[in-house]
Amino acid sequence: MTIVAALALAAGTFAFRWAGPALRNRISFPDRAVRLLEIGAVVLLAAVAAVTALPFTAGHVDLALPAGVLVAGLLAWRSAPLPVVILAAAGTTALLRLFGAG
Predict the structure, then answer these.
(1) How far is CA 43 from the centre of its chain?
(2) What is the pLDDT of residue 36?
(3) Is the per-residue pLDDT at 13 higher than 90?
């Protein structure tokens, strides 16, 4: 059963990747729909970042991870290169945890 599910996911992924270039010139969306889709993608990414970074558990509150995400967000907003964003966020989180803030 697992192999069938993996093959189905592989086929679906291939179909989606093929459909983009194949249908690019055949389908057009109104400008408003394009803007809404772009905004929706940003909102979805922000929601995923918030859910994974913020401490929603009732136990120990870890402030190091949200601080690292905040640093990454600020650097990304300032158009820093991706390796710099990743290293700064990881370094901030690691240093805060090293000094007991996490």
Answers:
(1) 10
(2) 92
(3) yes
On whether the CB atoms of residues 55 and 65 are closer than 8 A, the answer is: yes
Closest to 46 in 3D by CA, of 80, 69, 26, 28: 69
Residue 68 DSSP one-character state: H
Q: CB within 8 A of 99, min separation 6: which ones?
A: none
Distances, alpha carbon 55 to alpha carbons 13, 19, 21, in Å: 33, 39, 40
Q: Express each pLDDT in 63-81 by its tens digit.
A: 888 889 889 989 988 999 9
CA distance linking residue 16 with residue 10, whole number of Å: 10
**DSSP codes joined into one string, 69-95:** HHHHHHHHHTT--HHHHHHHHHHHHHH
| Amino acid symbol at 99 | F
